[in-house]
Q: What sequence folds into this?
């Protein structure tokens, strides 16, 4: 399923471009802080990973009242990926360019605003744009319209794991006719409705200190932080050494009767088989890093089963951004590609690794020889996904 990554566009709590995000990550910066998008004082989860200084100036003014913040960020990241790829779209048949994104909740903040209008004022005060602005496929649709993409397109819904599944699906489309695919995901649920939905899982951190709010693989771990952002990638079928290639993918759904982590082990082995690689070929693992003791132990046990205890280097850059729904895994893929490019493993900030977990967690940026990187993602409902990228 080899597909070549030729363009990267990033919008994250650490920066509004690929290099800005990467530099801040290597410098050990954190994008976590008190929630600014809405008044979070009524909730037990006051810390968020929000995209700072996001400007809507790059977008047509007519789009702004018709789109959620999530979609606006997705459009900016998509434009960045297309520009970075160097593709002259005038030289490519629009029917050969597709869009495959992932979604977890659609335009949540837009939906909350319009439902409030419905409840407080009545149906005639609900925007006609509501019909699609909160729909799961809205980012795919808006990107396709703005860039004239008419090839096979779609959206994947698999909670946080969807970011990897979308990239893998896009790679498969290249083998079935499309020449170019815009893929990945950008997500945001920064509104009271979104915060309540995440709080209901019981896994959101209650810490009011950004330095201790999200500590995956740490004895102090007490849950994860809600973030926003993500990344879009341009995949091409033609050989291009611009960045890296998507080599293998595996996806499973947990069997509730099996031991925790079993489905993740299966997903990793499926990805290795698809890439025709062995465990020892992986130079770094970008962990899902759920940030709860039970989920972290299950992931650490899965890594130990495949790679051995304290063996392959493991990192969780999302400790600096929070978990952004399906945008998290796509951003991890973009970050893994940059790690391959610069032969450097980014750090897991603020974390003191729990030695009992038996994982080789990187807490400072470190030069390392990397030929292949494994990115993992898990979603509520038992979704597991594993994706391998290689130089």
A:
């Amino acid at each position: 399923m080899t597909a070549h990554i030729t363009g990267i566009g990033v919008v994250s709590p650490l920066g509004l471009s690929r290099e800005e995000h990467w530099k801040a990550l290597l410098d050990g910066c954190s994008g976590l802080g008190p929630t600014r998008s809405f008044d979070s004082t009524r909730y037990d989860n006051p810390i968020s990973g929000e995209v700072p200084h996001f400007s809507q100036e790059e977008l047509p003014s007519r789009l702004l009242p018709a789109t959620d913040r999530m979609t606006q960020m997705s459009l900016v990241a998509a434009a960045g990926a297309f520009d970075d790829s160097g593709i002259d779209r005038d030289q490519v048949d629009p029917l050969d360019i597709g869009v495959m994104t992932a979604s977890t909740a659609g335009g949540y903040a837009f939906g909350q605003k319009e439902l409030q209008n419905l409840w407080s004022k009545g149906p005639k005060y609900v925007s006609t744009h509501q019909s699609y602005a909160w729909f799961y496929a809205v980012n795919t649709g808006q990107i396709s319209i703005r860039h004239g993409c008419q090839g096979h397109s779609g959206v994947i819904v698999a909670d946080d794991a969807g970011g990897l599944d979308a990239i893998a699906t896009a790679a498969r489309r290249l083998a079935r006719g499309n020449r170019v695919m815009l893929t990945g995901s950008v997500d945001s649920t920064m509104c009271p409705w979104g915060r309540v939905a995440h709080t209901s899982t019981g896994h959101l951190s209650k810490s009011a200190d950004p330095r201790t709010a999200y500590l995956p693989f740490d004895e102090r771990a007490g849950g994860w932080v809600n973030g926003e952002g993500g990344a879009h990638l341009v995949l091409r079928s033609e050989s291009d050494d611009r960045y890296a290639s998507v080599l293998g993918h595996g996806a499973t759904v947990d069997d509730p009767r099996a031991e925790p982590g079993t489905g993740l082990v299966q997903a990793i082995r499926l990805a290795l088989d698809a890439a025709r690689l062995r465990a020892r070929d992986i130079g770094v693992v970008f962990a899902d890093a759920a940030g709860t003791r039970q989920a972290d132990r299950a992931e650490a046990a899965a890594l130990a089963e495949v790679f051995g205890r304290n063996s392959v280097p493991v990192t969780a850059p999302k400790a600096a951004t929070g978990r952004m729904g399906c945008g998290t895994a796509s951003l991890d893929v973009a970050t893994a590609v940059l790690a391959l490019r610069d032969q450097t493993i980014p750090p897991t900030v603020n974390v003191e690794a729990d030695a009992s977990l038996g994982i080789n967690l990187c807490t400072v940026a470190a030069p390392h020889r990397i030929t292949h990187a494994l990115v993992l993602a898990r979603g509520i409902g038992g979704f597991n996904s594993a994706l391998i990228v290689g130089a």
About this structure: The longest strand covers residues 244-253. The chain has a mean pLDDT of 94.
